Amino acid sequence: MHLYGTQSVNNLGHLTIGGVDTVDLANIYGTPLLVYDIALFRERAKAFKETFKKAGITAQVAYASKAFSSIAIYEVAKQLDLSLDVVSGGELYTAVAADFPRERIHFHGNNKSYSELQYAFDEKIGCIVVDNFLEIEWLKQISESRKEKMNVLLRVTPGVHASTHDYITTGQEDSKFGFDLKNGQADDAFLKLYNHPFLTVLGMHCHIGSQIFETDAFRFAAEVLMEKMVEWREKFKFVCPVLNLGGGFGIRYTAEDKPLQPAAYVEEMENVVLSMTRKHNYPLPEVWIEPGRSLVGDAGTTLYTTGSTKLVPGLRTYVAVDGGMSDNIRPALYGAKYTAVSANRMMDPHSDKVTIAGKCCESGDKLIEDTYLAEPVEGDLIAIFCTGAYTYAMASNYNRLAKPAIVFCEDGKHQLVVRRETYEDLVKLDIPLQQIESENVK
C-alpha cells in the first residue's frame, strides 16, 4: 500500500492526512470531501525552486492553476513566492480576489476574448501568452488605445509527440494551441509584435502535454526552442530574455506509473539550456516553468462514503459511493486510473476485489474498476488518492449533484477552504417561468 506525502495510519487504523484523522474530517465536513495535504504542495514547490537555484538559473515557477483554482490555493502559492498561470477571466478574477501579485500572473488560453484581454490590462498583469493572430491584433488595439504596455510570450508548438493520452497532448504540430515553428507561423507572429511601441516580446513558451514520464520529450522541446532563439538573434538581432518550457510532469496514480521526482525533469531542461547557451554564446535566459498536476495532484485525496453493494455473480462486485463522475470526470472521460483504500479500516485485509461505482445515472460512472478494499460494509469511508488535479476543476452538477467541500490539512490542523454546495446553490441561477412571462409582458 503506497501512501503519499504526510499520509499515515493512526492507532485506530484510520488514514490520516496532515496529521488529521480522515474519519474525523468526514464526520465534520461530510462526504464527498476533497482533502489537500498542503505540506506536500509546499514541498514540491520548494523542490522546483531549489533545483533552479542550484543550477544558477534565474527562474519563475508558475503554478498552472487550471489543475485546481481557488482563493486559498492561490494564497498558498503567494506565500511560496510562486508565479501564477491563469487561462480565463474567471481564474484571473480568483487571483485578484486572492490579492495575488499582479506582476507574477501569466495569462494563457487559445481563445481569450477581447474583454478578457482588457481585464488583463486593467489589472496590469505580468505577461500574456499569445496564442493566435487574432489575439495579436486585439492586443495591438487595446495597448494602442490605452497607451499601456504589456509583456507577451509567444506560444509555439515544437512538434513534440509526447507519450500521453491524446486528450492531454498539446505540443504536436496538429494542435489547437500556439504558432507552429516548422511552417513559419512563429516567425510571422514574432514580426507582428517585434518593436511594437507597447507590446514587449519576452520570448517563447511551449507546453508539450500532461502526465509525461520520460525526459526525452522535455529535452527535445528545450533544444528546439533554444535553436529558434539563436536563429532569431541571427535574423532579427533579438535576444529572448525569457524561455518558458511549460509543465506536464507526470505523477504516480497507480503502481504502474513510474514518474521521476519532479525536479528531475527540470534538471534535464536546465542541462539543455546551459549547454546551448555556452555552445552559441547566448545570454542565459530566465527560465519559466508551469507545474500544475505535479504540485497538487497527489496532494489531493477524495473521501467518499459507501452505500449499496451489488454482486454480479461471476463478474464483479459493485460498491457505490456518494460521488462519482460529477466530482471526478477523468475516469469516464479518458480512462484515468486511481488507487483506493478503506480509510476507516486501514488495518483490515484489502482482499475483496470490487469496482467503485459513482451515483450518477450513467453506466460509465465507475471511479475504479477491479481494485481491492476491505470487505465492503455500508457506511465505510473510501479514500481515492491523487485526486488533487483536474477533479474539482472539472466538476459538474450533473444529475443536480452538489459539488463537494474542500479542506486543507497541515500540521494536525484542518481548514475549510471551499464550502459544499447546497440544494439552494443548485437553483440560484434558475429563473421561474412566471418571472420570464412577466418580464416579456413589460
UniProtKB/TrEMBL annotation:
Limits of the Orn/DAP/Arg decarboxylase 2 N-terminal domain: 41-296
N6-(pyridoxal phosphate)lysine, modified sites: K66
Pathway note: Amino-acid biosynthesis; L-lysine biosynthesis via DAP pathway; L-lysine from DL-2,6-diaminopimelate: step 1/1
Residues that hold substrate according to the record: R293, R330, Y334, E362, Y390
InterPro entries associated with the record: Ala_racemase/Decarboxylase_C, DAP_deCOOHase_LysA, De-COase2_N, Orn/DAP/Arg_de-COase, PLP-binding_barrel
EC number, as in UniProt: 4.1.1.20
Binding site for pyridoxal 5'-phosphate: G248, E290, P291, G292, R293, Y390
Record keywords, A-Z: Amino-acid biosynthesis, Decarboxylase, Lyase, Lysine biosynthesis, Pyridoxal phosphate
Catalytic reaction equation(s): meso-2,6-diaminopimelate + H(+) = L-lysine + CO2
Cofactor (UniProt): pyridoxal 5'-phosphate
Single GO MF descriptor: diaminopimelate decarboxylase activity
Family the UniProt entry places it in: Belongs to the Orn/Lys/Arg decarboxylase class-II family. LysA subfamily.
Function: Specifically catalyzes the decarboxylation of meso-diaminopimelate (meso-DAP) to L-lysine.
Subunit structure: Homodimer.
Name this protein carries in UniProt: Diaminopimelate decarboxylase
Encoding gene (name): lysA
